[in-house]
Each structure stands twice: as C-alpha cells, then as structure tokens.
C-alpha cells in the first residue's frame, strides 16, 4: 500500500471515529511535497448542472461597471480602443483562469483561489488575499447599490436618492 493510500485510509478511519459518514465519495487533497503526508478530506458535493455554472459565470463576468462604463468609453475612445482594451484584459483574464484551472485539476481542494495562493505561495499571502477579497466585496456592494440608484433615476427622474 502506498503512503498516500495509507494516509487516505487513516483519514477515513479518523472520520468514522469522529462520527462523519464515509459512505459517500470523499476527495482527498494531499500536499504536493514528498515529505509531507498530511491528508485532509473535504466533502464537496458537485451537483450544479452545466447551465447553472454558465449562468454563474455570466453573472460574475458582466458586472455593473460594464453596463455603466461602456457608454462613456465608447463616446470617448471609440469602438477600436474599446475592442483593443477588452482584448488585452480578456487575454490576461483567460491566462489567469487557465492557470487556476490547472491548479484545480492538479489538486482539487475546497476553497477559492485564495486557498491556492496560500498553498502554492505562502500562508500569509493567502490570508492577506482573503481579506483583500472580502474588502473588495464590501466596497463593490456599496458601488452596486449606487449604480442601481443611478439606473432607477434614469428611468424615473423623481426617484428619491
């Protein structure tokens, strides 16, 4: 029995002792370094359909900034500059997502890209990235509410705000 299989068996036995149900399939994420045999089990339930994942991706890609900022960008720079800038940013995002997909295929762990940053770079970097991501969400929530008020005011000029 290999070291990784023995570690997975031990983690499964520990889960049964702690009262977890182990009848369902459990994904074991191991540390890529050869000397570290710590095995942690996470219980991911992959029940989203392809259509649900596509809708989540579209909702995350098309933000309020795209709707509110495109008109002014088009009027200021024209269609060629918008196409060029979206191509540059799109290529950067594509390469980033490709790298994230490679990491997720190499080591499927429960967590966001912040977990991968903590695993592959440094724990402190993952911690800082997690807090920066939370702060980004907090600020963008207020920005989305402001954008919503601007849209309501466009359709109804008497809208309070």
From TrEMBL:
This is Basic amino-acid permease.
């Amino acid at each position: 029995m290999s070291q990784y299989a023995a570690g997975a068996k031990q983690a499964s036995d520990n889960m049964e002792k702690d009262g977890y149900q182990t009848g369902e399939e459990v994904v074991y994420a191991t540390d890529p370094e050869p000397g570290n045999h710590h095995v942690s089990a996470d219980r991911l339930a992959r029940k989203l359909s392809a259509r649900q994942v596509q809708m989540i991706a579209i909702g995350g890609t098309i933000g309020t900034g795209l709707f509110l900022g495109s008109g002014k960008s088009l009027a200021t720079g024209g269609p060629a500059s918008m196409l060029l800038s979206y191509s540059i940013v799109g290529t950067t995002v594509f390469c980033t997502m490709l790298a994230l997909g490679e990491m997720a295929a190499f080591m499927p762990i429960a967590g966001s890209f912040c977990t991968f940053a903590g695993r592959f770079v440094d724990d402190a970097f993952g911690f800082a990235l997690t807090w920066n991501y939370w702060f980004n969400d907090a600020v963008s929530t207020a920005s989305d509410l402001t954008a919503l008020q601007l849209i309501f005011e466009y359709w109804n000029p008497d809208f309070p705000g």
